[in-house]
Amino acid sequence: MGVQYLIIEHFRPGRIEEIYRRADANGRMMPAGLSYLKSWVTCDLGTCYQIVETDDRKKISDWMRQWEDLVEFEVIEVISSEQAKAKALRKG
């Protein structure tokens, strides 16, 4: 199992249609070794919260280059609630 990341995509103003057209034409364009798990988009269509998984953080950078003309990204390494609890209780 790889490391999971929360990707916050801030869609550039006025570009949402282009984002979905590119996705329809080309898919997510993720390199091998980067797996899409789930995503949610805000109701105003301005931000996407996406969970991905990889063993190689560079794969995320490679993927983001495909979209950086349309999207600004934040990348946050995350763990599950169960992992957080175990980590927190080990410290105490």
Mean pLDDT: 96
How many DSSP E strands?
4
Oligomer: single chain
Q: SSE order in H/E notation?
A: EHEEHEH
Task: Tell me the strand order in the biggest sheet.
Answer: 2-3-1-4
Helical content band: 25-40%
| Residue runs with pLDDT of under 50 for 5 or more positions | none
Shape descriptor: globular
Supply the number of helical segments: 3
Task: Quote the beta fraction.
Answer: 35-45%
Describe the biggest sheet?
4 strands, antiparallel
Overview features:
92 residues; alpha+beta; four-stranded antiparallel β-sheet; 36% strand
Explain how this protein is built.
There is one protein chain. This protein is α+β, with helices and mostly antiparallel strands and 92 residues long. The protein has helices spanning 16-26, 58-65, 81-91, and strands spanning 3-11, 34-41, 47-54, 71-78. It has a 4-stranded antiparallel sheet. A hairpin with a 5-residue loop joins strand 2 (34-41) and strand 3 (47-54). The protein is globular.
